[in-house]
Design a protein that fits this description.
The complex is a heterotrimer of chains A (about 325), B (about 270) and C (about 290). With about 325 residues, chain A is mainly alpha-helical. Chain A has helices spanning about 15-35, 45-75, 80-100, 100-125, 130-150, 150-155, 175-200, 200-210, 210-220, 220-250, 260-270, 275-295, 300-315, 320-335; strands at about 160, 250. Chain A has a two-stranded antiparallel sheet. Chain A is globular and about 60 Å long. The N and C termini of chain A lie far apart (about 45 Å). Chain B has eleven helices and ten strands. By secondary structure, chain B is of the alpha/beta class. In chain B, about 35% of the residues lie in helices and about 25% in strands. Chain C is an all-alpha fold. Chain C has a two-stranded antiparallel sheet. The radius of gyration of chain C is 19 Å and the shape is globular. The N and C termini of chain C lie far apart (about 45 Å). The chains are: A mainly alpha (about 325), B alpha/beta (about 270), C mainly alpha (about 290). Chains B and C meet through α2 and α3 of B and α6 and α7 of C.
Amino acid sequence: MVLEKPRPGDVPEAAGRLRTFRQAAGPGAVIALLGLLPFLPVLGQNRYLLSLLIGTFVFAVFAMSFDVLLGYTGIISFGHALFFGTGTYTAMLLAKYFAIGFWTALAVTPILAAALALVIGSLSLRVRGVYFAMVSMAFAEFVRLLAEKFSKITGGSDGMSMQVVPDWAYGPRHRVELYFLTLGLAVLIYLVLRRVLRSPFGRVLVAIRENEQRAAAVGYNVFAFKLGSIVLSGVVAALAGVMYAATENFVVPSVLGTETTISVLLMSIIGGVGTLGGPALGAVIVRLTGTVLSSYTERWRLVLGLLYALIVLFLPGGLAGLARTWRRKAPGRAAS
Amino acid sequence: MALLELEGVHTYIGEYHILQGVSLAVPEGSITVLLGRNGAGKTTTLRTVMGLTPARRGRLLFQGEEITSLPTHGVARRGIGYVPEDRGIFGGLTVEENLRVAVRRGDLPWQIRRRGPAGVKEPGGVKEPGGVKEPGGPGEPGGSLEARLEWMLSLFPDLAKAWRRQAGTLSGGQQQMLAIGRVLLSDNALLIIDEPSKGLAPVVVEHLGEALRRIVAHTTVLLVEQNFGLAAAVGDGFVIMDDGRTVHQGAMSEILADPSLRQRYLGVA
Amino acid sequence: MGLVAWLSLQGLTVGLLWFLIASGLSLIFGLMNVLNFAHGALYMLGTYGALMVYLATGSFILALIGGALLGAVLGALMEMVAIRPLYGRPLFQVLMTLGLILVFDEAVEAIWGPYPIPFAVPAALQGTLTVFDRPFPIYRIFIIVVGLLVWAGVQLFLSRTRLGVIVRAGVENREMVQALGINIRQVFTGVFALGGALAALGGAVAGPFEGAHPALAAENLLPAFIVVVIGGLGSYTGSLLAAMLVGLVQAFVGYYMPELALAVNIALMATVLLLKPEGLLGERRG
């Protein structure tokens, strides 16, 4: 079947010079602002706000990794939680059983994630479209059940606690340190991903998204590039998972579950796919909304689910898409 | 009065502007043939009539009523039977089941379903069964379902023999007969047939031509046909298309008399 | 020998329950290319619906009918409200059904709470039989009987009624069905209702077997996916065969190596993906 291509975002090569400047200026300003935040008098001392942002950075990385698949390559995976959760569990288990610390985990996990992505990717890529989504979800559900069943090792559905992060960033007294650690990693990963996606490799991914047959006809090995995309996004998702382990120091099997995949989808759809910034913005919005909602109602996930459904129905381009249409319309209105 | 009229129809597929002004009229009780080179827009014209690739501009009138924005099933229910280029038979279903899907009102009587068409009267391999009563004209209720079935099977006796076979296992010619036979079961005023001769042996094409001539005694036909021999043999009126436009409508004698038409649009000298 | 037969019966029970979910999933996909990720939720709601009717009326038969009806209504509603506006945008359709998982799960927790609610086996079906010297619950036999009856009923519907033939024709060529004058949208809604009813009936029948709890949806979606992949999307008979296979594997491996049961089924799915990605009885799709 032909799967509808996701609405592309602002593709770099299509942008004018001013646009390029704006594109670079936007993220730059955001990063600078975030970097200065802890030094601000009132806000900077607010541990609650810092914790919220720390969580947001983690999910921003996760959302960006998902965008590599959905936004850039046009692959729809419903099993992305698998890589995120694998990262988290790997970091926790390494810390628990081998006393291996954060940095080593950060170095080891990607290798494991890449291997996993190679195996699962080459199996799932035998089918396409929504069928791919289903198969990827089946694999993720399987790993979630493994985490639940092997409770002697993983703590099962009760979860397990373990300090993953180094002492200097551990505990409520070191929020600022953890804040900079996660922010630094998120920025680094953002820059690397941007570089990779603007490289020839990234351009082929976009070509595949736009027209798979044509990309194949031009001579690209579509399967290999898709697999590469899955490995790249799996590795980044696993890194986000390690960051998650470091910030939460606690994990339950549901990080591997549909709920996690839905939240990353929600972030991508709200933020708009095809730009790394969009999903990152989506992560901020979803985390903030979730936090605000959860202070009002215990059923905040129901609200979030309905919100998601409404966005799918009425705002397919996400907020970024909305902003784009608005920007496009605005000059026209001024002219008339 | 023309049964079907297209006025300045424009159709897009995705961003591609495929039909760029198609105007034609299909007179009642005749076979109108759409001619033109590959890619001229013949198939798209038929699909636009059926609402499968809806027109973006222009008007389509059927029996004097506008059908431009009707959904596909609505167009069919107005009385248009469609036989697509790939025949559109359901290969995993039996011949009987294929026919059953196509019966718009009611269902095949269960006696026929159980015993096969022999329950009606097996015409055997005879091409001209003689005794078969021809059904009423379009719109006339004279054609009961049984009568239509009997008449259809007299046109295509092969279908009676293959009654319970999977349609996918039939020969190309038999599949074409099934595709045409299927739309003869409902009281369609117009049949739209896309390249019936495609990939068929000459003897089968000849049989099809005869069948078409007998069909048009009751129904109007709009035909796309690349086989110039068949087109010339069965067609009453001809429409020539080029580059998504209708460029000429008239009789075969006009086309034959005008070498530039022949060469530019048909590629026959 | 006795053990083999006994385990086969066990496998048949589970397999038929999964068949009830997977067949609807498969039919819906086959006809309209929509993969309903919220199908497990319909199964779960079948359990809850049946339990409510059972508690209210005390009639188990009414409970089964009520559960199935709830599934049919929810299935039809889902198609009309959430899926229909998105035809022509398949990506957003699956995104939608995925989001509905969250909505249904949360709604169930909001209404019935997070804890399992016991669902008593009706008195007439309590007790065990001795099958090859081993105890076998009568209720499991009931599940087998219901499963086979439903399979036969739907099979008859698909092969004998005109509507069933239209559904099969639609699976092959949707466009042509429309061109023959059939309003395919109505058929879509009907098939969604049928799929919902099948899943919910599965959930209702399984109720006294596993109780009602909010994890039912997630727990049963995975086996349904495995069954669908192995059997081939869109193939009704394929669903049955694959469900039997997966159920039997589950029973046998589960008996000898309980830890491995699920892994073996995933391995089975992976093997099918490698050797015959379209599934045992499925047709290759783009």
